[in-house]
TrEMBL record:
Lineage, top ranks: Bacteria, Pseudomonadati, Bacteroidota, Flavobacteriia, Flavobacteriales
EC number: 1.4.1.1
CDD domains per UniProt: L-AlaDH
Listed Pfam families: AlaDh_PNT_C, AlaDh_PNT_N
UniProt name for this protein: Alanine dehydrogenase
Amino acid sequence: MKIGVPIEIKNNENRVGMTPSGVFELTKRNHTVFVQKDAGFGSGFFNEDYVKAGAIILDTIEDVYAAAEMIVKVKEPIEKEYALIKSHHTVFTYFHFASSEALTDAMIESKAVCIAYETVEDADGSLPLLIPMSEVAGRMSIQQGAKYLEKPIKGRGILLGGIPGVPPAHVLVLGGGIVGIQAAKMAAGLGANVTIMDVNMKQLRHIANIMPENVHTEFSSEYNIRRHLPQTDLIIGGVLLKGAKAPKLITRDMLKEMRPGTVIVDVAVDQGGCFETTRPTTHEEPTYIIDDVVHYSVANMPGAVPYTSTVGLTNVTLPYVIKLANEGWEKACENNASLAKGLNVVHGKIVYKEIAEAFDLEFEMA
């Protein structure tokens, strides 16, 4: 198969869809890999590394799409790429369709096969291709939250862990999945007082058993969330509904219950965000302020640490890329139930129920 790895052109996205190691694994299986010139540069991988691994370097993104049968990316295609995607393409990347009707419409029109990392699902319900980026984003949410609590950046002016004689910050984590656990772990390690909320009591019991004493668990409800807001300094939104829009757990009116300079970090921004006032931001302009509350909602947070993120992601995506290359998308999905759940749009038809529901479009079984 001919596989293309283009440069990610989303704002400040420095990750790459394949490392030289991945290229080597594919080329030794007699597949051809086309890598756009300097695609790996932001992650610390150079053109000569890819050439040594057996890749063919192409100058432009247009060249890569034209040469390839399968496109392996990190982030969803943006508007400049829509016209490059054709009906013969299989596109394997993060799509997060439920947060963008324009992207959904464009991929329907392209008639390509769109397989989304974020909905590949194992038998136990886990999302193996989302986990490493959720781990990165969860940990980064605390790094960023701590930074934006500083007064020069309009935060409350509070040190997350406090000092002797001065109490630490209060951190509220919404969602007890991978993002929430990693965020709580980081915040607790810095000495903050942490409350993590979820509606899954089994998960809350698990969290209570593995976390240090400065992490507390609580059942998530609007009443309980509101009760915490007046004394919370940093709120992390890490709620995920597989393939669907995130629920709005913090509404606009709740901002007035927070103290000026409170920071809210919405890790669920790719799925539409779990705060009503969320809008996607970039690493160039990561924050905005509404009602004196600092909002951080960078849509590609792991892109700020591209080496860690690229290696972590490609560790888990490569086995699926190899399956797709060896067998073609139809046979690979037929033989692998986890990969089959990654099918979102196939030849102009939505085959993932939650996406169809998000935009009131027709759903068809894959």
